[in-house]
Amino acid sequence: MNDTTDPRFTVLGARPGKIVAVHLSYGSRADQRGRRPAAPSYFFKPSSSLAASGSEIVRPAGTELLAFEGEIALVIGEPARWVAPDAAWSHVASVTAANDFGLYDLRANDKGSNVRSKGGDGYTPLGPALIDARQVDPAALRLRTWVNGDLVQDDSTAGLIFSLAQIVADLSQHFTLETGDVILTGTPAGSSVVVPGDVVDVQVDAGAHSTGRLRTTVTQGAQSFNPAIGSLPAVDDTQRTEAWGSAEAAGLTPPAPVLSPALRDKLSRVPVAALSGQLRKRGLNDVTIDGVHPLTPGSRFVGTARTLRFVPHREDLFASHGGGQNAQKRAFDAVSEGEVIVIEARGETGSGTLGDILAIRAHARRAAAIVTDGGVRDAEAVAAVGIPVFTAGPHPAVLGRRHVPWETDVAVGCGGTTVEPGDILVGDGDGVIVIPPAIAEEVVDAALAQEAEDAWIAGQVASGHPIEGLFPMNAEWRARYESEVTR
């Protein structure tokens, strides 16, 4: 079968020389992912991944996270090399609908290349019809996706971070875009997981012009991957969250928002020592993160935990988990305002667990603090960033000397205590303490009352009264205190 009769290339008329895909281009998708790129970035897909409308896509045995991405595809007409943005659209011959399927189970070892996760047979359906690019406004194309008849994506090129012309011009700076090449221009928010039996439709409209619906049916495969040949599929909660689009959609329970502005304000007014006393009264003694100190004296913070776990260094594991957008980078890219990145480093201070770039990222995302029972690299620069950092000490070595970044948003052990995502942390010059969210209000109210009482006692001692009977207060002093504070 030659290229002109191969049904995979029917809509194009021939096999394209290359397929280039944009990683992240819509504002809605960037906001969903919590990161907005400053410039477009790309990956290649093989032409063997193309499929026609009405085709099936096979989810391999042993996998769970096959996700659709409705996209607008551009087909190059005139070759483009070093073209300016204002001339770039003239090099586009056609527009059509595309579905940039990806198997998140295979992302880890691709390290951003997407070779396996997005290169499978049938992973790039195109069609069913082309729209003449000369007849449309590239800033006014509408993209819609349906799953089993339900509309799940509806956006337009007005929502792009990078215009279609900019994408063409940028690619032409790096290599020649040849006639018939295909550019997949990214997906908006709404991409999610599909399962065998699901039917996905994608359509692009430009005024009166339409591609019609590009239809793909998901089926279950029987063939599984051979571990003797290559790496096996692997998923974690981070991959599930990204594949489904949110923790809620993935069936995961995200950390509950436990810190109201009023509770945060009260916690900010109470010393860690006072909170420790109240937790001890409630039978909680193992709630301090021991061995960590503020890089900047006088640092104080209140926030909810966002966790990152390192495991001991092993060369093969660092090779598979240490590169690309690893767990460490994902944690710092995902932290939200008011959250504390808590790093389990097993008390190992023989390398840094973060440096100034990551501290800047956490600060830019308005994180409350960073707590690590490991070392900090570029300690002076990290301290200058302005975000509270509590650490076991500085160390000049990089992460890979002692640690492998392993996973995020799990229970971790930091400084001798367990920290769960969503736990409340408070830090000051005395150290860092962990407060279970369910009793936070009770603990802080009791601590504030105790602080008021202690301040009154201190005033009495300063005026000359002896400590005996006053600290702690006997019945006589208690009655006097209560009569004065209730006036």
What key phrases describe this protein's structure?
single chain; 487 residues; alpha+beta; 9-stranded mixed sheet; 7-stranded mixed sheet; 13 helices
Helicity, as a percent range = 10-25%
SS element count, helices: 13
* Rg calculated over all Cα atoms: 28 Å
The strand count comes to: 26
What is the makeup of the main sheet? 9 strands, mixed
SS content category: alpha+beta
> Beta-strand percentage?
25-35%
Query: Segments where pLDDT lies below 50 for 5+ residues?
Result: none
What is the average of the pLDDT values?
93
* Terminal residue distance: 95 Å
What overall form do the CA principal axes indicate? elongated
Question: What does this protein look like?
Answer:
The protein is of the alpha+beta class and 487 residues long. The protein is 24% helix and 28% strand. The protein contains 13 helices and 26 strands. Strands 16, 17, 18, 19, 20, 21, 22, 25 and 26 form a nine-stranded mixed β-sheet that branches. It has a seven-stranded mixed β-sheet with strand order 2-1-12-6-7-9-3, with no helix packed on it. Strands 4, 10, 11, 13, 14 and 15 form a six-stranded mixed β-sheet that branches. It is elongated, with a radius of gyration of 28 Å. The mean pLDDT is 93.
